[in-house]
Amino acid sequence: MNEKKILVVEDDEKLLPTYQSILQEGGYVVETATTGNQALEKAEKTKFNLVLLDLKLPDIMGDEVAKVIRARDDEVPITLITGYPTLQESIDALELGIYEILIKPIGIDELLRSVQEACSS
């Protein structure tokens, strides 16, 4: 079986293990990062099938992380996770080629649907 690798980038210490657990139970291989720099290091070393990326990180904004990842790999789907959607973020995300924007709180079914669709595209 071809296991799909997902990088989850989230600085919320309560949400990160929840996302990780849900995705692992869904059959995905999950790596995590709590900062933009950690995400960039992991994305440089590993080819992921999807990056789930929080927009607000403690060191680098998620859209900046997305730009760097996109410059290295223009095919990997990137889904932004945010609790504070604005029209400008949506416009910027479209320009970055973001696959989808998920608004917190994210339900289990919504998370799994989004990941399955992104990994199948």
Describe this structure in words.
It is a single chain. With 121 residues, the protein is an alpha/beta fold. The chain is 45% helix and 20% strand. It is built from five helices and five strands; from the N terminus they run βαβαβαβαβα. The radius of gyration is 13 Å and the shape is globular. 30% of the residues are buried.
Strand order across the biggest sheet? Answer: 2-1-3-4-5
Helix/strand-derived class? alpha/beta
Cα shape: globular
Q: Total helix count? A: 5
Q: Report mean pLDDT, rounded to a whole number.
A: 92
Beta-strand level of the residues, as a percent range?
15-25%
How many β-strand runs? Answer: 5
Query: How many strands, what sense, and barrel or not for the largest sheet?
Result: 5 strands, parallel
| H-E order | EHEHEHEHEH
How would you summarize this macromolecular structure in one to three sentences?
The chain has helices spanning 15-25, 36-45, 62-72, 87-95, 108-120, and strands at 5-9, 29-33, 50-54, 78-82, 100-103.
